[in-house]
Design brief:
heterodimer; A: alpha/beta; B: alpha/beta; five-stranded antiparallel β-sheet; 23 helices; about 20% strand; rod-shaped
């Protein structure tokens, strides 16, 4: 199922970007800043606004591609990472959106939210702060 | 026999094993402690590393996320590990979480060396190149020490248990495998009687190992010892037997055996020695050897000493005095048997010694007369010469002794010699020394006699003594003596010269007719030399044709006709001229040359006779035959051979023999005469009346003619007794049927008397001297014409 999904969505995920609220104060984020925010190390924009990362659905190809491109890990590994923190630590994984549209909505609605989606066309509610390149 | 346990093999081995094990254990414990701590450290490091490995990823997550709670969870979990004393996790230099063991000491007792706190940098889970924190673990030294101590203690305990087990095992093994069999063998050896052939059994299951070998070796040794013991026993038995044997020989030996030390003390002797030396049987009373009654005790001492000095056997004869008169001779052979000990073998040689003495006396004594013999004479002469005092050597020869001895036999001859010896001794002084130097020859050494006068007186006495009649029963005899005397030193300074000169003087006395005494003079030597020369010449005379036959006519007195002749030999010596027969015939007789000469005479006579007969001269020839020629040197066959060769009949030859021929060996003489007469040769008895003329001879001997010696005829004219004797001889021979020839007729008166007495034939200068053959025909014619 996952493989089929990957195959089906791969061409669609060719251009993922990290989006934030325009009032987040962030114009552009480094890859390290993106990693720190999404993996719970440092969830704060350079402007001092707390960052709230949002994952796509666990089964979405965007999530897998995003983490693959960001830290070179499979989702299983990412899940295992979060499992250790969730069991005994205080740090929580990103909130999970049901879809890319919800991610867009949630980022547009919350200045501290940050998520990743397919590069949007003509969308001014969110600001692209990181281009998840290959 | 039981060994003290502390000295036993088991104890020793065990102590050894335990000692070595303890030593090893001690070393091992030291090493083990070291080893244990090292291992503990390594273990701890490994464990901590593994611990860190286990929590590393989680810790790195905690550090990445700076999640103190998660870190806290981790350190709490880690600190639960007993090996960890303190754990700290820092994220980016800020301590995130820390936990510490409550009672953990920072440092131990020094058992463990410094062990660094384990630190590991924690990398970001998403970027392996980026450090996000650090975890540090400090080991729990107290625990480690405890663990090590425990471990070492355990090892020690294990070792102790092992030691005990090994010691017990070693004791058991040594006891069962070594001690028990050895003990068994030892017990067996104590009971074993090897000489009875018992052997050491090899302990079971040890047949092929060292103990088995040991048992075999012990058996081998025991066998060897038993054999050696048996040999020794055998030897001892043999020695005892030898000892008994020699003791027996010693005690029962016929020879005396003694052992004496250097001082002459007798230490041992046997029965025979006691018997031979009349030694008291009580040993305590035995005197030293040299105190026995030896005639010369010093000789015994010398014998023992020289035997010891030379270390060799010495032997000699010793005379042992037994009482006043008796003595015995003992032969002692002494051999050294030790440095100061001599063994002597003694045998009684009295008999041998006496025999030797007797033999020695015999050797110089004439057994018949008891006088000294020729060797004794020579010995005595030598001693006399050595004394250089004047003495006379007189030799007395019995005239005609040989003839009497031959005629009457040895017993008579011996009696005469004994009588002669006695007479000689009677007329000599005690200091004079008499010997029998030959068969009828006595020699007398007269000490102190240096002059002819003194010697002459004694010579006369001896002549007189020996000249007296010998009154032997049934055979009275009358003998003269010829005596020759030489004087020392006048007639010779050495033994051979003196003897020879005395003999020469005797020869002179004998030649002078006997019954006289002659002194040696130098001419005798010359005469003897001349005689030797004559003898040499005689041998060549036949070859050189120096002999001649002369013929003396024999006349028939009745018819006054010459009927024959006696052939007489003459020697025409080239230097000396005509040598008379008296000078060379005795020499020829002595040397045996007369045999050769006799043959020549027969040959020559036959030759001459044949010539005469050819000329018509009818004569016979009479030839003188020597005693030496009869019977073998002039056998009948040879006579016939020679006469036959010249064509002479036996009747033309007459053979003249003297009485001496018949007296020498009557049987052979008679046989020869009978033989020659049987074939026709005539036989004449020559020189009748001069010797033992016994009328019985005439009867016994096969004679044809008897010739009366010229000495009777010569004295017939003056001496009426001779005339009567001649008359009686003629009458007697005629009555026996024999013819008579009177020799030495020189005068008409003699011829007349002989004719008157009836004598058949005559021969003498009256008719003719002996003539060469060439003159015989003329002589015959003259004689016949005179008749």
């Amino acid at each position: 199922m996952i493989l089929a999904g990957l195959f089906l969505s791969a061409p669609a995920c060719a251009d993922l970007v990290v989006i934030a609220h325009p009032k987040s104060g962030a114009e552009q984020l480094s890859k390290e800043q993106v990693v720190n925010i999404f993996l719970g190390r440092f969830r704060q924009f350079p402007s001092g606004i707390a960052a709230e990362p949002i994952d796509q659905a666990a089964t979405s190809s965007e999530k897998a591609v995003f983490y693959q491109r960001l830290v070179g890990k499979e989702l299983a590994e990412i899940n295992a990472y979060w499992a250790r923190l969730v069991f005994s630590g205080r740090t929580q994984p990103p909130r999970q959106a049901a879809s890319a549209a919800q991610v867009l909505e949630m980022v547009a609605a919350n200045p501290g939210a940050i998520g990743y989606i397919e590069r949007p066309k003509n969308e001014s509610r969110v600001k692209i702060v990181f281009d998840v390149e290959k | 026999m039981f060994l003290h346990f502390r000295k036993s093999l088991v104890f020793g081995t065990t102590v050894g094993v335990v000692g070595v094990a303890l030593l090893i254990g001690l070393l091992f414990k030291l090493v083990a402690a070291d080893f244990s701590s090292e291992r503990a450290e390594r273990n701890v490091t490994t464990h901590l590393d593994q611990l860190v490995d286990t929590i590393e990823s989680t810790a790195s997550v905690a550090c990445f996320a700076k999640d103190a709670q998660l870190a806290k969870e981790l350190v709490n979990g880690v600190i639960k590990n007993i090996e960890v004393a303190r754990v700290t996790i820092t994220a980016d230099g800020v301590p995130l979480a820390k936990a510490e063991r409550p009672a953990a000491s920072t440092r131990g007792s020094g058992l463990i060396t410094t062990l660094p706190t384990l630190k590991r940098t924690l990398m970001s889970p998403f970027d392996a190149t980026k450090a996000v924190g650090e975890i540090s673990l400090e080991p729990n030294y107290q625990h480690m020490e405890h663990a090590i101590t425990e471990q070492v203690r355990f090892v020690g305990l294990l070792l102790a248990v092992q030691l005990v087990v090994i010691a017990v095992a070693v004791m058991g093994v040594v006891f069962w495998v070594v001690v028990r069999p050895i003990k068994a063998m030892s017990d067996r050896l104590h009971r074993m009687n090897a000489t009875a052939g018992e052997q050491l059994a090899i302990p079971a299951r040890h047949e092929n190992n060292e103990i088995g070998r040991l048992a075999l070796d012990i058996n081998g040794l025991a066998n060897k010892l038993v054999l050696a013991l048996r040999d020794e026993h055998q030897l001892r038995l043999q020695r005892e037997m030898e000892e008994r044997k020699y003791r027996g020989i010693f005690e029962n030996a016929d020879s005396g055996i003694f052992i004496v030390d250097r001082s002459g003390r007798l230490t041992s002797w046997n029965h025979s020695f006691s018997r031979l030396t009349a030694l008291p049987t009580d040993a305590a009373k035995a005197p030293p050897l040299w105190e026995l009654p030896w005639r010369e005790p010093d000789m015994i001492t010398t014998l023992i000493d020289s035997c010891l000095v030379d270390d060799s056997t010495r032997e000699d004869d010793f005379e042992l005095l037994l009482g006043a008169e008796a003595s015995c001779w003992l032969h002692i052979a002494a051999s050294p048997i030790g440095p100061e000990t001599v063994q002597g073998i003694v045998s009684d040689v009295t008999t041998r010694k006496r025999a030797e003495t007797s033999a020695r006396e015999m050797a110089v004594t004439d057994p018949l007369t008891g006088l000294g013999n020729r060797p004794a004479l020579e010995q005595h002469l030598l001693e006399s010469i050595r004394a250089e005092e004047p003495f006379a050597l007189m030799i007395a020869d019995l005239d005609g002794f040989k003839r009497i001895n031959d005629a009457m036999g040895f017993p008579i001859g011996d009696q005469i010699l004994v009588i002669a010896a006695t007479r000689l001794q009677d007329c000599l002084k005690h200091s004079d020394w008499l010997a029998r130097a030959g068969s009828d020859e006595f020699a007398i050494i007269l000490p102190g006699i240096g002059t002819v006068e003194a010697a002459s007186r004694i010579g006369e006495r001896v002549l007189d003594a020996l000249g007296r009649p010998y009154d032997i029963p049934d055979a009275p005899a009358l003998l003269g003596a010829s005596i020759g005397i030489s004087l020392y030193p006048r007639d010779g300074g050495d033994l051979p010269t003196l003897l020879r000169n005395s003999e020469l003087a005797v020869d002179r006395a004998r030649a002078a007719g006997g019954r006289n005494c002659q002194f040696f003079d130098a001419q005798m030597v010359e005469a003897a030399a001349q005689r030797r020369r004559l003898e040499a010449d005689l041998r060549h005379a036949i070859v050189r044709n120096e002999f001649r036959l002369y013929y003396q006519p024999i006349i028939d007195l009745a018819s006054h006709r010459m009927i024959g002749a006696e052939a007489l030999i003459r020697w025409q010596h080239p230097q000396r001229g005509l040598v008379p027969p008296d000078e060379f015939i005795p020499l020829a007789e002595e040397t045996g040359f007369v045999i050769e000469l006799g043959l020549w005479v027969v040959e020559e006579a036959c030759r001459q006779l044949a010539l005469w007969r050819a000329d018509g001269l009818d004569l016979y020839l009479s030839l003188n035959v020597s005693a030496r020629q009869i019977p073998d040197s002039l056998p009948l066959s040879l006579l016939l051979d020679i006469s036959g060769r010249h064509g002479i009949p036996p009747s033309a030859l007459a053979l003249e023999i003297t009485e001496g021929v018949l007296m020498a060996d009557a049987t052979q003489g008679i046989a020869w005469l009978s033989a020659v007469r049987s074939v026709g040769f005539r036989t004449y008895l020559d020189d009748f009346g001069t010797g033992y003329s016994s009328l019985s001879y005439l009867k016994r001997f096969p004679m044809n003619v008897v010739k009366i010696d010229k000495s009777f005829v010569r004295d017939m004219g003056e001496d009426s007794s001779d005339r009567a004797l001649v008359s009686a001889i003629i009458a007697m021979t005629r009555s026996l049927g024999l013819a008579v020839v009177a020799e030495g007729v020189e005068t008409t008166a003699q011829l007349g008397l002989l004719r008157g007495m009836g004598c058949n034939y005559g021969q003498g200068y009256y008719f003719s001297r002996p003539l060469p053959a060439a003159e015989i025909p003329a002589a015959r014619a003259r004689i016949d014409a005179a008749g």
